[in-house]
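Dear Dr. H.,

I hope your travels went smoothly. While you were away I took the liberty of generating a structure for the chain from your last submission, since the lab meeting agenda had it listed for discussion. I wanted you to have the full record in hand beforehand rather than looking at slides cold. The sequence, exactly as received, is reproduced here:
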Amino acid sequence: MFSARKIFAALGLLVSFVLELIAANWAVLRIVMRPRLALRPGILAYRTELRSDLAKTWLANLITLTPGTLTLFVSDDRTTLYIHTLDIDDTSKISDSIRRAFESKLLELEK
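The corresponding predicted structure, in token form, is as follows:
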């Protein structure tokens, strides 16, 4: 059943996604406009606390829709997402960003 809490959580997720989308587009634009590309692409293993397959699918898709990141694979036990990033300079920063922007809101929707 829909509750006010879930509606606010969904709106928070939408706002968070739009803000992450803008920030990621700006970051990709700065990378592309550099005279010399100094990228360190890589793959990050991101362990999720989400329980439902639907929430995990949403998380994987939100990550993929954000420029500079792409969900490549989900582990067999469905607890780890493997994410390709355009610049894997700081894995903890990337993980924290995903957790703050997307996973925390999806956890609210799962309740």
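Two observations you may find useful: Residues 4-110 form one domain. The chain has one domain: 4-110.

With kind regards,
E. W.
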